[in-house]
């Protein structure tokens, strides 16, 4: 199966379980590819510092349908992961870091929605320890600036676009984690069409009716007077012409 590095269309979604971008050595994660047509022509690919465009099941991971399980991971598993089809369609890209030191920041690898609750965990795990621990007072940094001390975790109860950025944490004595980018996605609000404006019906009041009647009577009287005056003037002019034409008697 041949694949290309150039994505023609982004039409699938790659998710990761657990949802974080940093891991300790010897941990495990699973990648899931959600595709629109349930086609079996998709696979999970990765680019690492040593090899590019390596499908799941070739030197790394165990494919299981649309899943790829990667267990007992090492620093060599650090890289960029995505889904791709033979036709050149792709998914989003996840940047995964496998840290060889003893402190990581557990932050979401996938974008979080604005308004949701987001928790950043600062975790410490010695090389051969079975479990990690967050029960210590960690210093947290955003975009290179110190933002506070918290015991193991920092919570954003109502995350906003202003919380988007690059984060890391520091153990009091064991060092600090790699950087991790937090993406906050703003949900598009549907536009509400404006209601059509309706003209209010004209109210006919008794005052308007009386006023209209009075104006009509006034205009009628004025018209009658004008006609009467015009007739009188016409008669007067006719009599004057008659006298001039007949002369004195």
From TrEMBL:
<dbReference type="InterPro" id="IPR036179">
    <property type="entry name" value="Ig-like_dom_sf"/>
</dbReference>
<keyword id="KW-0812">Transmembrane</keyword>
<feature type="domain" description="Immunoglobulin">
    <location>
        <begin position="107"/>
        <end position="185"/>
    </location>
</feature>
<keyword id="KW-0732">Signal</keyword>
<dbReference type="InterPro" id="IPR050488">
    <property type="entry name" value="Ig_Fc_receptor"/>
</dbReference>
<feature type="domain" description="Immunoglobulin">
    <location>
        <begin position="18"/>
        <end position="99"/>
    </location>
</feature>
<protein>
    <recommendedName>
        <fullName>Immunoglobulin domain-containing protein</fullName>
    </recommendedName>
</protein>
<dbReference type="InterPro" id="IPR003599">
    <property type="entry name" value="Ig_sub"/>
</dbReference>
<feature type="transmembrane region" description="Helical">
    <location>
        <begin position="209"/>
        <end position="230"/>
    </location>
</feature>
<dbReference type="GO" id="GO:0009897">
    <property type="term" value="C:external side of plasma membrane"/>
</dbReference>
<keyword id="KW-0472">Membrane</keyword>
<dbReference type="GO" id="GO:0004888">
    <property type="term" value="F:transmembrane signaling receptor activity"/>
</dbReference>
<keyword id="KW-1133">Transmembrane helix</keyword>
<keyword id="KW-1015">Disulfide bond</keyword>
<dbReference type="InterPro" id="IPR013783">
    <property type="entry name" value="Ig-like_fold"/>
</dbReference>
<dbReference type="GO" id="GO:0006955">
    <property type="term" value="P:immune response"/>
</dbReference>
<dbReference type="GO" id="GO:0007166">
    <property type="term" value="P:cell surface receptor signaling pathway"/>
</dbReference>
